[in-house]
Amino acid sequence: QSVLTQPPSASGTPGQRVTISCSGSSSNIGSNTVNWYQQLPGTAPKLLIYSNDQRPSGVPDRFSGSRSGTSASLAISGLQSEDEADYYCSAWDDRLYGFFGGGTKLTVL
Amino acid sequence: EVQLVQSGAEVKKPGESLRISCKSSGYSFTNFWIGWVRQMPGKGLEWMGIIYPGDSDTRYSPSFQGQVTISVDKSFSTAYLQWSSLKASDTAMYYCARHSGLPDYWGQGTLVTVSS
After folding, report:
1. What does the pLDDT average to over A28-33?
2. Taking CB atoms and an 8 Å limit, are B59 and A96 in contact across chains?
3. How far apart are CA A49 and CA A35, in angstroms?
4. Which of A71, A88, A91, A100 is 20 to 30 A off residue A46, Cα-Cα?
5. Chain B residue closest in CA terms to A52
């Protein structure tokens, strides 16, 4: 059981908007920033969102992140077939180590 | 361009020792934490620990403390993950990742298979 809780699966049709949640506590998300990663099948994870809502260069603006209290969310608008992947949230904990969420498998129907 | 290049896949027997590596380039190696992430077959990502190459300050997740050793060689801009006695349950993909607070740039992964 991960300290950061994500839904195991999510789905949507092309063009739809989907959101993935990440729930933590006051010692991680509540007091530290959140990153999101995309892992395509058979590849290494890739940074998608950093510092709650910032996109690295090259990441489409269809991807957006937010944080409120002890939870964070990743939103994907204009869903495309190539967005089918596993998505992970991550946060630092005040106990001086990091955590990942359990991951959400996104299916594009 | 930031790059992290990991050593190749390994097949080991239970009880054997192993050290895998991660060579960094394209940034100042001593100014960023670098760490390791485990992904067991069909499972999610697990944060193992990090090291600051500037002074070798090391932090481990409680789940991995005492099970592995993280080290660096500044002269080669390389980080290492080491086991003294492998178990079958160590079979996994291991990723190194530069940390800017949290992981930003990732290596391609090293598959470690432990089987008798």
Report:
1. 94
2. yes
3. 5
4. A71
5. B102
